[in-house]
Amino acid sequence: MSSSSVEIKPAQGKLGILLPGMGAVATTMVAGVFAVRKGLSKPIGSLTQMGTIRLGKRTDKNVPAIKDFVPLVDLNNIVFGGWDIFEDNAYQAAMKAGVLDKDLLQQIKPEMEAVRPMKAVFDQKYVRRLSGPNVKTGKNKMDMADQLRQDIRDFKKTNGCSRLVMVWCGSTEVFIKPTDVHQTIESLEKGLRENDPNIPSSMIYAYAAIMEGIPYANGAPNLSADIPALVELAGKQNVPICGKDFKTGQTLIKTILAPGFKARMIGLNGWYSTNILGNRDGEVLDDPESFKTKEESKLSVLEHILQPTVYPDLYGKFSHVVRINYYPPRGDNKEGWDNIDIFGWLGYPMQIKVDFLCRDSILAAPIVLDLALLLDLAGRTGFRGIQEWLSFYFKSPQHAASVYPEHDLFIQLMKLKNTLRWMRGEELITHLGLEYYD
């Protein structure tokens, strides 16, 4: 199976990456790009910067770097901006976050200090454990959206950007289910004018980005752009969108292990997961309503991978429990502890225990970069609406209403790389191996 290549506009000029929420994750990504530019480090964890893609048969030995295969923007042509409820510039925010070594930050201090947050759209009733002084005021939520749109235009002009993308790096908001206000563009805009309580801050950012023709990714489990109104708007505005919730620590491990269990037809009795984290994310998730939003995202993974209705003898009755504990001394170095009760031949039980001492922002930062670069590519390729081929990066991938989300990390990666092959008119890799019948 092959395809003629589609037209991809060249990555000319500067790309502006706009980040709502300039805390630990965002500043770690920004600092990393500056460090890579100066040759101080390598972009470890970034598929777009470190990954390769096989073309043709294995015997062809044609395996270019992804960044050489598709026209991605060069890291030297990126400009950063964003919004935050705190006034700290990126250097100050990174120092407070405590993720990166202070000696490294000193070497990129001028670049980091130049990245200053704009006043944020923020309402504490959606993120109850945070408050800050650097916030916008307005007569209603539509006014707030208009202010964001003006920020976007001003940033693009001031920094001489050719294109922009937006990646939500803000906090997890309280749990909200889709309601009537989310169903159509008209109902959403009416809700913005009338301050509907079911329109949280992240949704205002998503609306502003899409209206300005800017690709949008949501790194939190918030509804944000995952509503019919904004999916429809993205289609009309020719804007690619994707989300939700960056796949970093514990859920990354689940999407690696669970496909292996299913591949070998190993049964599951239960999976108990505890998270210990002490950064701003942990503080926010200490609120039960914000935790519920995260819990919904984390719990959905195993159900979709293991397909209990298809394999009732193996996965029909497993117990899945997720806990998040805020423990300030841990800082950004969170711990994901899993107890997994599996069973094998003739039902004999076994256990696996995983203790992942991970660094949340270190795992998330390359995801933010990759999404920004790949969304920019999608925009230049003429893609619009939900980008399911970017599910690889998310705990709870945004997907078309007619299908279930794909959570298997390895299927997600195949879909991502095959999309890139399709863009360039290359044969899709199926691993069918019919060479035995040549």
Could you explain how this protein is built, in words?
By secondary structure, the chain is an alpha/beta fold. It folds into two domains: 296 residues, Rossmann fold; 108 residues, Dihydrodipicolinate Reductase, domain 2 (2-Layer Sandwich), CATH 3.30.360. It is 38% helix and 16% strand. It has 16 helices and eleven strands. A seven-stranded parallel β-sheet has the order 3-2-1-4-5-6-11, sandwiched between helices. α1 packs across α15. The protein is globular, with a radius of gyration of 22 Å.
Features:
438 residues, alpha/beta, Rossmann fold, Dihydrodipicolinate Reductase, domain 2, 2 domains, four-stranded mixed β-sheet, 11 strands, 38% helix, globular
Helix content: 25-40%
Question: Which secondary-structure class do the elements indicate?
Answer: alpha/beta
Number of domains: 2
* CATH class call of the largest domain: Alpha Beta
Order of strands across the widest beta sheet?
A: 3-2-1-4-5-6-11
CATH architectural category of the largest domain: 3-Layer(aba) Sandwich
Task: Tell me the β content.
Answer: 15-25%
Q: What is Rg?
A: 22 Å
The ordered H/E elements are: EHHHEHHHEHEHHEHEHEHHHEEEHEH
Question: What's the short version?
Answer:
With 438 residues, the protein is an alpha/beta fold.
